[in-house]
Amino acid sequence: MTAATVSTRLVLVAACALVDLDGRILLAQRPEGKPMAGLWEFPGGKVEAGETPETTLIRELAEELGIVVKEDCLAPLTFASHAYENFHLLMPLYICRRWEGMVQPLESQKLTWTEPKKLRSFPMPPADEPLIPALIDLL
Ligand SMILES: Nc1nc2c([nH]c(=O)n2[C@H]2C[C@H](O)[C@@H](COP(=O)(O)OP(=O)(O)OP(=O)(O)O)O2)c(=O)[nH]1
């Protein structure tokens, strides 16, 4: 089997950098018991059958944070393409500056708002590190 035919599972995850009025970004800590527990990530989740990345984010942001986001408030910024051991992650990253409701940790996850230039002080999944310069440039 050549490298080109080795099968790897492609997992599509939609993620969102929520940006507040001070230009800070929301990170959520992955809970104990999950892979990469303790690392800080952008809210989001796997795109399920029948969903678009935008509808996934609208669902996940409501479930995880209790906020209502409209599709036209989700702006694509960049994406991650990263080979994990068991799957290949393809993760579009959106920016959202406008939502309804107060951000709450509905899944008992720790949340933090951080300035873009301090993002590197939070341990993040390896797929996320290449995304940081795009956020610093934008904000
Ligand atoms: N939401 C999010 N997921 C990320 C980021 N970076 C990164 O590598 N991931 C990975 C972690 C997971 O393997 C996958 C997200 O899927 P998920 O949140 O539905 O998966 P999970 O492991 O928490 O839980 P499960 O649904 O598989 O039980 O993408 C990120 O910044 N945000």
UniProtKB/TrEMBL annotation:
The protein's Enzyme Commission number: 3.6.1.55
Keywords: DNA damage, DNA repair, DNA replication, Hydrolase, Magnesium, Metal-binding, Mutator protein
Domain Nudix hydrolase: 9-137
InterPro entries with a match to the protein in the record: MutT-like, MutY_C, Nudix_hydrolase, NUDIX_hydrolase-like_dom_sf, NUDIX_hydrolase_CS, NUDIX_hydrolase_dom
Pfam families: NUDIX_4
Cofactor (UniProt): Mg(2+)
GO molecular function: hydrolase activity
Catalytic activity: 8-oxo-GTP + H2O = 8-oxo-GMP + diphosphate + H(+); 8-oxo-dGTP + H2O = 8-oxo-dGMP + diphosphate + H(+)
Family: Belongs to the Nudix hydrolase family.
Name of this chain's protein: 8-oxo-dGTP diphosphatase
Organism: Flaviflagellibacter deserti
